[in-house]
Amino acid sequence: MNISRRHLLVLLPAAAVAWKHVLAGSPQDSPNYQMSEHWWGMLIDIPKCIGCGNCVRACQAENDVPDGFFRTWVERYHRSDIHLESPEVISPDGGKEGFPAVAAGEEGKYFFVPKMCNHCADSPCTQVCPVGATFVAPDGVVLIDQKYCLGCAYCVQACPYGCRYIHPTKKVADKCTLCYHRITKGLTTACCEACPTGARQLADLKNPNDPIHEFLKAHDVQVLKPQMATGAKAFYNGLDGSVR
Amino acid sequence: MSSLKDAGHLFRFAGLFVLLFLVFLAVRSYVVPKSFGEYGHYRGAAIGEIAARPVKFAGHQTCETCHTDIADTKTKGAHAHVNCEACHGALAAHADDPANVTPVKPDTAVLCARCHSASAAKPTSFPQVDPADHSGGVPCETCHNPHSPVIGSDSTPSAAKGGSK
Predict the structure, then answer these.
(1) Option in B41, B51, B90 nearest A29 (CB)
(2) Spatial distance between the Cα atoms of A122 and A160, rounded to a whole number of angstroms
(3) Do A181 and B60 touch (CB under 8 A)?
(4) What is the mean pLDDT of residues A139-153?
(5) ipTM for the complex?
(6) Does B126 contact A at CB distance below 8 Å?
């Protein structure tokens, strides 16, 4: 078959439309939600975090997270002025009930780092699943099919951010779903809803009107462990170099 | 043809292979879920199942449809960007059935201190006090309206006690 340039110009957009149709799907119960129109991530603004633990409590309430396990948690870093590479990190009960006070004038720098699933575009956790029970959904959210999961915990080991755990009673892998049951209904995540300072912002990278685009242009934003090339979509503003 | 005369056992063996392959196909079509492979190497229906879970935080837009007075007070104050359920907790149950599910009013002694108790680890621009030193045990809402906490910014500080309509 001979394809002229003219034919190609017609064929390419047609193929793009067809491919978009293939990718587009609507999960049950959210008929107006098109997976192909979203690419979800999260913005975490460290200078705004006060370590109140609202996000941790909200997440546990919204998602029935068992006690002692966390889909999101807050760490407090103490980076000494001398030992820049070895910060002291605490996270009592995931920071759920806040942190012990620090007296004014202490040596070094203190700051809070909320942690959660980074919803990596090239996620190491989904690549190791032997049965196809965890996957990156077409809208960029890393999810677990708990009916299919064997509980082998390969993914728990594979996650470089320690964001997965084996559910103590269900015996299957569990993690942050980016409140998938909320964002598909047009709501924000429970942690963002409960954050009093706006330190966490749900971001839709495919929405041209989302403030994330302006924010990424105007600020020095990093992801955790960029050297692992995970395509992490939890964007940290004001991230100190000592954070691991 | 004489070369095939003694090949019967090969055909029987091939037939067995074909039969086993058909059994494999039949079992596979029964065992593999219908939606497996719809979007990738996973069960497509799982996405819908996860999305169908119930919501517990109603979202501030839902609260504001009824509690317009509080929303008005809040937009003018320093807590304009603090969502309702950041303090009041998950209340989708109340939004679904306002008559029967009554929210418990949060204890300001615990609630306010959670964010505003002083610590050098918090950003310096964030308003912080030592709760014991600041009020001497007097409840926060005696002086501050939680919905518009800066004293003097709201003409009706007792609105804090009213809460909802």
Answers:
(1) B51
(2) 12
(3) no
(4) 96
(5) 0.82
(6) yes
